[in-house]
Amino acid sequence: MENIEYKNENAWLKLDKREVMDFSESYKQFVSACKTERETVSFVWDELVKMGYKRLLKPEYAGGDFFAVNDLKSILIFREGKTGIENGINIVVAHIDSPRIDIKQNPLYEKFDVAMFKTHYYGGIKKYQWATLPLALHGVIMLKNGEKLEVSIGESSDEPVLVISDLLPHLGRKQMEKPAREVIEGEALDPIVGSIPVKDEKDKTSVKKAILSLLNEKYGIVEEDFISSELTLVPAGIARDVGFDKGAITSYGHDDRICAYTAFRGLIDAQTLERPALVMLMDKEEIGSEGVSGSQSDFLEYVLEQYMKKNGINGISVREVLHKSFALSADVNAAMDPLYPEVFEEQNAAKFGHGIVITKFTGSGGKYSASDASAELVFAIRNLLNKQNVPWQIGELGKVDVGGGGTIAKFMARRGIETIDAGPALLSMHAPHEIASKADLYSSYLAYKAFLKSEIKI
Ligand code: MN
Ligand code: MN
């Protein structure tokens, strides 16, 4: 008899556990090594060069598959399909920036014989979660002589970490009465960067000067160089398995490098593609997809225009190509947290370990600011995943009046691309260490690969 009831089943029951575990190991290496958008771009870039991909915007390009890098912080990877670009492209777009704590442009100061860095947090964080954690410093500094210094300090056990202090409970009575968003204020997210003084010319001691001369001797940095730097604090250390069964992974930056990795692997592992396929790994999603490397920029249009020009494709405009294209907005959703059931509506929220989450619409309140996929597109995706036996479920970001949020979907949809959100559901999203199910990781990989290969039609 036909099964007429919708069942949301646990993905572990459908998947090959060995395959899931193997794939998870390679993801753990990736997410442990790539903690910023720049590091992610350079990882993907290296992989592509090894596979013989050429850069579209460089003289080396002579037609065919390509990649294109924007501002060293976002990267587009394109593969040709059985049909040409005239019939549209299958696109998976993910973001490679994550919430974190950026260093200010004039950061160094000293108080009570402790040297500190002033910071400015990036993205939606619960500020109190970032104190008393070992933090690593990542980024670049443009030195006075024009040389670019790549920085990564605090990842290996013989390197120092930077730490933001917090009040002891004994003196924290007033602090503990504050609302959580004020427990630690934005200007109090400054890490300790030194504590050994030198004597200066007036025979006073200075820790700040000691740190400046140490940085100068070791790296050739002068204080003004910080002004031309992009330095960021991220949780130090590597991704780890969670649970006695090792069914989940805790790591910094699952949002959204879990989608970036699975989309990238989906694209390069797919055999024949029915249509051209494009994976976009974008920057600045956590602060509204703004700026030259964000999804609101016209880099996509520019790249397609250059591709068509270099391959002599005439008679169709970039705009027509986009209007014939489909996109998965590959971003994470919230899994129902057993400790906080009250914010979820169980029948429509995503369950941890139940496969990739298809989210018809985002937004908040009365669907405000939502990108809303059509029933026809939802059907096409549902049908595709069912045919390919990919574990999937539906999701939403919390109860109707409780939460909400947005993704890149609306910036793709705005271009005339039929777009829907699809990605794994996390626990502790935006925390220093987020939690992802390995079954959801692998389901996402299978889903993106299936979509990129497919001849989707609505
Ligand atoms: Mn995200
Ligand atoms: Mn996010």
Walk me through the structure:
It is globular and about 85 Å long. The strands form 6 sheets. Strands 1-2-3-16-4-17-23-19-21 form a 9-stranded mixed beta sheet, with helices on both faces. A 7-stranded antiparallel beta sheet has the order 8-7-13-5-6-10-9. Strands 14-15-25 form a 3-stranded antiparallel beta sheet. The model has no long low-confidence stretch (mean pLDDT 96). It has helices at 17-33, 37-50, 180-183, 207-219, 254-269, 299-310, 318-323, 375-387, 409-413, 438-453, and strands spanning 54-55, 66-70, 74-79, 90-95, 100-111, 114-122, 135-142, 148-153, 163-164, 191-194, 198-199, 205-206, 229-235, 240-242, 248-251, 277-282, 326-329, 333-334, 356-359, 363-364, 392-394, 404-405, 418-423, 425-426, 434-437. The protein has 2 domains: 11-98 and 252-453, Zn peptidases (Aminopeptidase, 3-Layer(aba) Sandwich), CATH 3.40.630.10; 100-235, Aminopeptidase i, Domain 2 (Roll), CATH 2.30.250.10. Helix 5 crosses helix 10 (438-453). The protein starts with 16 loop residues before the first helix and ends in a 5-residue tail after the last helix. The chain is of the alpha+beta class. One manganese (II) ion binds at residues 95, 255-256, 285, 331-332. The site of one manganese (II) ion has 3 residues, from loops.
